[in-house]
TrEMBL record:
Any Pfam family: HTH_67
The name this protein goes by in its record: SalK
Length: 292
C-alpha cells in the first residue's frame, strides 16, 4: 500500500510559506522600525517582535514558547523590553516593517496582484482549521485582526500557519527526548538547519553547550563522531519521526484546504519565495554544516 502523500504535500506547502513569514527577522526594516520605538538591541528586537502578540509576558513564557533559546539570554531582555515599548507599539512597528520588507523583496506589483489576493484567500482558509489548545504562539497571533491589504493578510496567514506547526513541532521534540540544544545540533546535522555560527550568535548558547549536546547525541547513537558530524541511521530515523509527528499535529489546516487548494497555494508560494530569495531575503551563509 502506497504511503499517504498528503502529509508530505502539507509539509512542502508549509516549507514554502514559512520563508516569507521569517524574512522580516533578517530585514533592516524591522531593526529600523523597532529602533524608532526605542528597541535597539537585536535580541530584544527579536524577542519583542515574536512574543508581542502574547502581551507583556515574562522571560519564562518566552523561553517556553521559543524552546531553543537560552533562558539566561531571554531574561536579559524580557520583560525589560516592555518598559521600553509596549506590545501594541511593537506589533505596529512589526507591521510597518513587514509591509516595507515585502515591498522590497517582492515588488509593489506583486503586492497588489491577483496572485497575492488568491494566495491570501487560500492561506486564510487553511487557518480556519487551526486549533488554539496547547499552542501558545499560534493562539496569541490568532487573536490579532486580519489586515485588509492582501499582502499583509497573506503574511498574517503564513504567520498563523508557521506558529501552528511550530507549536506542534515543540511537542514532537519533547516526545523525542531532544532538549533545546540537542534539537539545534541534530537539526544542523540534517544539513537543513542554521549554521552553528548563527545559532551561537543568536540562541544564547556557547561552544561548550553545543559540544556537550553533540556528545549526548553521540552517546545515544544519534550523531557520528566525525569532524563535521552527521546523523547516524538511528539519528536520521529519530529526526524523520519528529517531522512525521509534526505533520500529524499540523494536518488539520491542509486537510481543510483540500488537495487542490494545497497544490495551488504551494504554486503561488513557490513564486513568491523564489522572488524573495533572488532579492536577498536571507544571509547567504545562514544554512551550514554541523561542527562540534
Amino acid at each position: 500500500m502506497s504511503p499517504d502523500p498528503r502529509p508530505r504535500a502539507a509539509r512542502h506547502c508549509h516549507n514554502l510559506l514559512n520563508p516569507l513569514h521569517s524574512a522580516h527577522y533578517f530585514a533592516p526594516e524591522l531593526a529600523r522600525e523597532l529602533a524608532a520605538v526605542g528597541v535597539t538591541h537585536p535580541r530584544a528586537a527579536y524577542f519583542a517582535a515574536r512574543s508581542a502578540a502574547m502581551g507583556a509576558v515574562g522571560a519564562g513564557a518566552v523561553t517556553a514558547a521559543f524552546y531553543n533559546f537560552s533562558h539566561e539570554l531571554v531574561a536579559e531582555h524580557v520583560p525589560a523590553v516592555w518598559r521600553i515599548a509596549s506590545p501594541e507599539a511593537v506589533l505596529a512597528a512589526r507591521a510597518r516593517a513587514v509591509d516595507a520588507t515585502l515591498a522590497r523583496l517582492l515588488g509593489p506589483e506583486t503586492l497588489t496582484s491577483d496572485a497575492m489576493a488568491e494566495a491570501a484567500e487560500l492561506a486564510l482558509r487553511a487557518t480556519e482549521a487551526c486549533t488554539r489548545h496547547a499552542r501558545a504562539l499560534y493562539a496569541a497571533h490568532a487573536d490579532l485582526p486580519v489586515p485588509e491589504a492582501p499582502h499583509m493578510a497573506y503574511w498574517h496567514a503564513t504567520t498563523l500557519l508557521r506558529e501552528h506547526r511550530g507549536d506542534g513541532h515543540l511537542a514532537a521534540l519533547l516526545d523525542a527526548g531532544l532538549d533545546p540544544v540537542e534539537a539545534l545540533v541534530s537539526h544542523v546535522a540534517t544539513g537543513k538547519g542554521m549554521a552553528p555560527k548563527w545559532l551561537l550568535a543568536t540562541r544564547g548558547w556557547n561552544e561548550d553547550d553545543y559540544a556537550a549536546a553533540a556528545g549526548r547525541l553521540r552517546a545515544r547513537g544519534l550523531l557520528t563522531d566525525d569532524e563535521e558530524p552527521t546523523l547516524t541511521e538511528e539519528g536520521a530515523r529519530l529526526r524523520a519521526a519528529v517531522e512525521e509527528r509534526t505533520d500529524a499535529l499540523d494536518q488539520a489546516p491542509y486537510e481543510h484546504l483540500g488537495e487542490a487548494g494545497v497544490a495551488r497555494l504551494t504554486e503561488l508560494a513557490t513564486a513568491f519565495v523564489g522572488t524573495a530569495l533572488a532579492n536577498g531575503a536571507f544571509p547567504a551563509d545562514l544554512i551550514g554544516k554541523a561542527t562540534a
